[in-house]
Amino acid sequence: MLTYDLTERAGAPLYEYLYRCLRRDILSGKLAAGERLPGRRSFAEHLGVSPVTVDAAYSQLVAEGCVEARPRRGYFVAALALPDAAAEPPPTPGRPEPERRWRLDLRSNRVDASLFPVGTWAKLTRRVLSEDPEALLRSVPHQGLYELREAIAGYLRGYKGLSVRAGQVVLGAGAEFLYLMLAQLFRGAALAVEDPGYPQIRRCYLGSGAECIPVALDAQGVDPAALRASGAAVLHISPAHQYPTGLVTPMPRRQELLHWAESNGGYIIEDDYDSELAFTPRPLPTLSGIDRAGRVIYMNTFSQTIAPGLRAGFLVLPERLLPLWRERLGFYSSAVPSLEQHVLARFISGGFYERHLARLRKTCRERRVAVLAAFRASAFAGRIDIREPGAGLHFLMRVDTALADEELRARAEARGVRLAFLSDYAARPGGAPEHVLVINYAGLGGEKLGEAVEALEGIIN
Amino acid sequence: MLTYDLTERAGAPLYEYLYRCLRRDILSGKLAAGERLPGRRSFAEHLGVSPVTVDAAYSQLVAEGCVEARPRRGYFVAALALPDAAAEPPPTPGRPEPERRWRLDLRSNRVDASLFPVGTWAKLTRRVLSEDPEALLRSVPHQGLYELREAIAGYLRGYKGLSVRAGQVVLGAGAEFLYLMLAQLFRGAALAVEDPGYPQIRRCYLGSGAECIPVALDAQGVDPAALRASGAAVLHISPAHQYPTGLVTPMPRRQELLHWAESNGGYIIEDDYDSELAFTPRPLPTLSGIDRAGRVIYMNTFSQTIAPGLRAGFLVLPERLLPLWRERLGFYSSAVPSLEQHVLARFISGGFYERHLARLRKTCRERRVAVLAAFRASAFAGRIDIREPGAGLHFLMRVDTALADEELRARAEARGVRLAFLSDYAARPGGAPEHVLVINYAGLGGEKLGEAVEALEGIIN
Fold it and tell me: Domain HTH gntR-type, which positions (chains A, B) (predicted)?
C-alpha cells in the first residue's frame, strides 16, 4: 500500500501533508491515471491517522480534479494528460546577464551622479517616512499626487511663464510610459513625428497600434507642407532643441505650426525633454506658452535633470483635452510610486530642484565650452565641422571622411566607444546624411574628455 | 520712444532683460507687426545703456524670428500671426480635485496599512541610500535590477515550486503597465480574456490596439470550446482565483488549457494576482509550474500584498519567448524607479516579505471567518447565498431581491457605500447574472465589519 512518512510534515496539518504527497505523485505520473487509491479506512490504519484525515485529503484532491470519486467503488486517479516534458529547456542557474560596458558612451547623456544632492533626497525620504509613514502605501489619484502636480505647475509658472494649474498635470513613469498614454488618448488619429528623430517615440507609438508618420525637417524644424501632406492629426515635436539635429524652431515657424493645429482641429505634443539645460541664450517661449487655443500638450521628464532611474515625467494637458483624457485613460492607476511622488514634491517645492538645476546648468555650460575647445585643438580639428546652436546637451559634428558610418562605428566599438550617428535616427532610408556624429557630451567631464579626444583621433584619422 | 524700466531686471543681464521686455510686447501684440523698432544708438541713449546691449537684444530677437533686420533700414517687428486668444478658457486657480470618499468600499481590497512594516522599509531605504547613494540615480537594466529579479525568482522557487531563473523575470510599473507590454509582445494576435473579468485587462489590451475577445466561463473557468471558437492565440486567465467569480480552475481543466496552447502554438498569461493570500486549503500548482512546453507567462504584482502605491509587478517569461521580448520590447527603460528596486530586493531577500505575508494571511483568514459569521448572523442572512471557494480576498454573495443592481447601487451610494456587482464585470450584455455582489472584504477589520453589516441591512432589506 502507498506509504508516506507523515513525520516529515514540518508542522503542516496531517491532512494537508497527505494531500500534497498524493498530489505530487499524481502530477508526476508516479500514481497512474485510473489507478485506485487505497480505501479510506485501511489507508488511515496503514498510515496511523484518523479516517477523517484521509477523507479531508481525498476531498481536496477531488475538488481540484486530481482524483475522481466513483460512488460505491472508491477513489481513482484522474486522467490528467501531462504535457510533453521535452519541449522547454530547463532554466540555467542564475547569473546576471552580461551587459556591454562602454569605456566611453557618446550616445547617451548621463551627467555625473555626483552633482545630484543625494543627501537631500535621502533626508526628504526619511522625513516623509517618519512624518507620514503611510505615504508609502496610500494610492495617489490617477493624475498623480496633488502636492507634486502643484509643485510642478508652480515651477512651470515661475520658470517657464506657463499658465498651468495642477489639474492639468498628469504624472507618468517616464517619457516612454507617457508616449503610450498619448497613443491611447489619440487613438485612431495619425501621429506625425520628426524625421530624423528619437526612435523610442516612433517605437512606442507603433507598439501601441497608432499610425505614425515620419515628417521631414527643413532648416527650421518640421516642414509645414510635409506636415499637411502627411494627413496627421497630431504632431510630436521638440521645438526647443530637436533630437538629434539640435534644431531650434524659430518663432514664425512655431506660429505656423500652431495655426496648422488650430485650423485642422489637431494637437501638438511639445516634448521639452532638455530645455532645462538650454543655457545660452535664453530659450524661446514654449509652444505651450503661446498657445491660446488649447492645442498644445506640454511634456517633460526628470530623466535629464535628475536621473533616468527616477522614472518620472509629466504632461500638461490643455483644459479642452481633460474630458477625453479622463474618459480614455482615467481608469489607469498612477504609475509612479507614491513615496517617490511625495519626495519629489518636497524636492521641488522646497527649492532644491532649482538649486540643483542651477549647478547642473553651470557644469554643462563649462563642459560644453571645454569639449568644443578640446575638439577644435585636436588632431582631427581640420576634419570636423561643428554645428552648435547653443542649447541642450548635444551637438552635431560633421566629419570629413571616406569611411561609411558603419565602418566608423566598428572602429569605435573596437575601442570600447559608443557613437551615435545622425543616420541612426532617420525613419526613412536616406532620411539623414552620413558622416555626422551626434555628440552627447554631458558625461565628458574631467579625464573623460581627454579620453574622448584620443579615441576620436584614432577613429576618425 | 519705447521705454522699459531696466532697474526692475532683478539681477538678469541688461541685454537679456531688454530682450525679454521686447519679446513680451511683440508676442502680446503691443508692438504691432511691421512696426519699426528704435535705432540702436538712440534707443541705447534713451534707456541709458550701451549700444552693445541693444545690439545683443535685437540679435536674439532676430535669431528667434520675432524681429526682422532689413539692411540699411533697421529692425522691424515680424508678422507673427497670433492665435485667437478667446478659444481656451484661462486656468482656474489650483485646488485639489474633489474625490469621492467612501465611508465603506466593498469594491476594492485594501488591507490596513498598519500591517505593513513601514519601519523596516524605511530602514532598508536608509541603508541603500547610505551604502550606495548612487542607487537612486543609476539606471537598471531593461528587465529590472538583477538582485531584485533574483530575489523574486528565489521566492517563486521556494514558495511556488516554480523553476525560474532571474533572466526570465521582467519588472514593470504595476499590472496595467505589464498588460500594455504584453499587448506589444503579442502584437497582431487576438487575446482572449475571461468574461466576466477584470475590466482593466480588456481596457489595456484594447487601448494598445490589440484584438480582445471576451470568452465565457463555465463552472471550471474558461470554457475550452468557447476558447477554440474565439480564434484567439493568447489567453489571459486567473486560474487560482478568478476575479470576480472566485472560480478555482481544477487540474484537468488546467491541463486542457495547456493542451490548447501547445497544439495551437498559443500562449497563456497566468495572472496570479491574489494567490499569495489563498490561505485554505493549499493552492493548486500554478499553470506555469506544470507547463513543460514553455507556453505560460506567469504574472504577479505586489499591489495586493504590499500596496498598490508601490507600483511594482513582474512577469516570468518562458525561455522560448525571451528573444521575441527583447526584439519587441527590449528598447524600453525599466519603468520602476531604481531606488525602489533596490529596497524591494532587500525586503524580499532579507525574509521580510515572507514574514509580512504570513501576518497578512493570518489577518485575512480571521477577517474572512468574522465576515462570514457576521453576515450569516445578520438580519439579511435569510436572503443571501454565499459562494465561498476559500481562496483570495473576495467572495460572491447572491441576494434574494426584487431590486435591480442599479437600484441597489443607488441605495448603497446614498449611504456612502461602494458596492461591486458581478454584472459590472461582464464584457457582453447579460454576460453575468444580476443580484450577485462581489464582496471584497479585506478592509472589513474591527468596527468596519459592524458598519458593513448595518449598511447592507439597510440596502438589502
Answer: 12-80
List the 353-372 stretch of B: residues with Cβ below 8 A of A.
none
At residue B222, what are phi and psi to the nearest 5 degrees?
-65, 130
Q: Is B312 left (phi over 0), alpha (psi -120 to 50) or beta?
A: beta
A291 interfacial to chain B (CB closer than 8 Å): yes
**How many Cβ pairs within 8 Å bridge chains A and B?**
316
Residue B436 phi, psi (nearest 5)? -115, 115
CA distances from A430 to A195, A424, B225 (A): 11, 10, 51
Distance between CA atoms of residues B209 and B186, nearest Å: 11
- H-type alpha helices, A74-140: 118-131
- Compare all CA atoms of chain B with the CA of A66 and give the residue at the minimum distance: B251
> What angle is formed at CA B453 by the lines to CA B447 and CA B457, rounded to 5 degrees?
150
DSSP B2-22: ----GGGGTT--HHHHHHHHH
Alpha helices in B162-250 (DSSP H): 175-185, 199-207, 224-230
Going B50 to B55 to B58 to B64, the CA torsion angle's sign is negative
Nearest CA in chain B to A90: B163
Question: What whole-number distance in Å separates Cα of residue B106 and Cα of residue B460?
Answer: 15
Q: Is residue B309 less than 8 Å (CB to CB) from chain A?
A: yes
pLDDT reported for residue B95: 62
Q: What is the pLDDT of residue B24?
A: 78
The phi and psi torsions of A434 (rounded to 5 degrees) equal -80, 175
Q: What proportions of chain A, in percent to the nearest 5, are helix, strand and coil? A: 45, 15, 40
The angle formed by the CA atoms of residues A211, A326 and B430, to the nearest 5 degrees, is 90
pLDDT band for position B279 (50/70/90)?
Answer: low
Question: Do B84 and A129 make contact, defined as CB atoms within 8 angstroms?
Answer: no
SS3 B264: helix
Does residue B323 sit at the A interface (CB-CB below 8 Å)?
Answer: no
The reply to whether B80 touches chain A by the CB within 8 Å rule is: yes
Q: Report the C-alpha gap between A260 and A285 in whole angstroms.
A: 18
CA distances from B374 to A326, B62, B357, B384, B451 (A): 39, 78, 25, 12, 11
In tens, the pLDDT along B10-35 reads: 777 788 888 888 887 887 777 888 88
pTM: 0.84
Enumerate residues 6+ apart whose C-beta is below 8 A from A460. Answer: A380, A383, A384, A399, A401, A408
Q: Is the distance from CB of A106 to CB of A439 less than 8 angstroms?
A: yes
Say if residues A457 and A408 touch (Cβ distance below 8 Å).
Answer: no
Between the alpha carbon of residue A242 and those of residues A231, A369, A393, A435, B256, the distances in Å are 22, 20, 11, 19, 54
